[in-house]
Design brief:
Elements (H helix, E strand, L loop, with lengths): L16 H12 L8 H4 L8 H9 L15 E4 L4 H12 L3 E3 L6 E4 L6 E4 L5 E2 L1 H14 L4 E4 L6 H9 L2 E4 L4 H9 L7 H15 L2 H6 L6 E8 L4 H10 L6 E2 L4 E5 L2 E7 L5 E8 L2 H18 L2
Parallel strand pairs: 1-2, 1-3, 6-7
Antiparallel strand pairs: 3-4, 4-5, 8-12, 9-10, 10-11, 11-12
């Protein structure tokens, strides 16, 4: 079997990268000590947390007129606990929720963090595109600044500029970004995000397809490249290859390449990189992934 541990700080966000690297280094060097069961600490079972979570996710946006909701039917196909929370949340805000696989539909991962959808026309909406939609709704509601995870699509920078608002990225923009993202769970939690999207659809009508049509086209693709040599050396070589491009070196390498963007980040605890390409369509995004996969392989010694 396989055990996955996810670590979060008190604000509900993942560990800061500095702390994550320290933890990984400690484990890799074997600098850990086994503790006796009596020294680990106590445990406490908290009842009713699922209901509290669902109630929080179902809170309508500020100023929303609940009495004027347009009926909206949606399917949730997954069967794990996070999907059940999603079904209960959407039913609680007034959606007609089914589990038969009809359209439109939401899909959510078992952690409840990544949300995907298929709209009324059968078009798949990625987690990145849904994140962009929720951010757009925030700006349209009057929020002057929104904080997003560092890896959020570069297309959102253009969207923010069009709305004349600020986009902060966690890590790059300091503690202000972290505090702001912690206070807006619908920008980091799949159940909260789905509820916010459904509130918007029930207000305006037209379904997910009409909401998505208000965004400019963009697509994201990703690929993993396994390395045989030093991961840091490969990253430095890739950064050098982008000296002439607009670039950032925070969580790996993020650079503008032609009309698209590439984000290359080390995979924790593994000799591998995750390459993410973004462009106006899926073909451009995939081509950028392939370009940097070949660059990484060429300098991997």
């Amino acid at each position: 079997g396989q055990l996955t541990l996810s670590f979060f700080e008190r604000d509900g966000l993942p560990l800061r990268h500095a702390l994550e690297r320290r933890l990984e280094g400690t484990v890799a060097r074997g600098e850990t000590e086994l503790s006796h069961a009596a020294g680990v600490g106590g445990s406490r079972r908290l009842g009713g947390m699922g209901s509290l979570y669902i109630s929080a996710a179902a809170v309508p946006p500020q100023g929303y007129d609940i009495a004027r909701r347009v009926p909206f039917s949606v399917s949730v196909v997954a069967r794990h606990a996070a999907a059940e929370h999603l079904r209960e949340t959407l039913s609680g805000i007034g959606c007609r929720v089914t589990s038969g696989g009809g359209l439109p539909q939401f899909d959510i991962d078992a952690d409840g963090l990544l949300l995907g959808a298929i709209d009324e026309t059968g078009q798949a909406l990625s987690s990145e595109r849904l994140l962009a939609l929720v951010a757009m709704l925030e700006w349209e509601a009057g929020r002057r600044a929104v904080a997003l995870p560092y890896h959020a699509p570069a297309a959102l920078d253009n969207l923010a500029a069009r709305h004349r608002v600020r986009l902060l990225r966690v890590g790059r923009d300091g503690e202000d970004a972290r505090r702001l993202l912690a206070a807006t769970p619908h920008l980091r939690d799949g159940v909260f995000a789905a509820a916010r999207l459904c509130w918007a659809v029930m207000k305006a009508g037209g379904g997910l397809a009409a909401l998505d049509a208000r965004l400019s086209p963009f697509a994201v693709a990703s690929v993993e490249v396994k390395l045989s040599g030093d991961r840091g050396a490969v990253m430095r070589n890739l950064a050098q290859s982008c000296l002439a491009e607009q670039r950032e070196l925070y969580d790996g390498l993020r650079a503008r390449v032609g009309e698209g963007w590439v984000h290359v980040a080390p995979l924790p605890g593994r000799r591998a990189l995750r390459i993410t390409g973004e462009g106006a369509n899926e073909e451009i995004a995939a081509e950028l992934c392939d370009l940097f996969w070949k660059r990484a392989k060429a300098v991997d010694v």
